[in-house]
What does this fold into?
Amino acid sequence: MTRQRRLSATEKITCTALLVAMQIVMGNLVQIPLPTKQFNFGFLPVAMAGVFLGFPWAITVGALGDFFGAQLFPSGAYFPGFTLTYALTGLVYGLMLYRKKAAWWRVAVTCVCVALINLFLNSYWLTYFIPKGYWVLVEGRLLTYLIDIPISIVVVYYVARGLGQTRLFSQAKEEEKNADPINEGEDKP
It folds into this structure.
């Protein structure tokens, strides 16, 4: 039996940097305009970081991806509230999906939580820029989020499941499970 290698800090930083770059591209260049918001796939690299690297790395991917995306593709002045929203979504993805089997129900609950965070917080941040009431913005954006949720669930589920079967991530998950202090005294296969 060969000993599997654990991801080093350098490899985690490299994966994080690649996911930040993916988040910038998928969040700013790949967009589908909808009447009250734009749909993009910027959530996917944040979810991938949460699933395979944990919440500190997912927070980093979300926050840095939003910050650098706003600098590279400005659509007005930078506002840190949206960065906070992305960081919180990274926290949710990491806490709910890291070291857990990609089950439909778990991914669905996670994507609903992320959608609620985005709906309520981003609507609040928009009140600083749009002279409408908070609940008017929430109500106007609700339908697009109801459309986003099933798409997000399917995409996150299949990406998490597919990447979990790749050699790199399946080895890393197994190594981290074996290195878990809770399992220290148990026999390892």
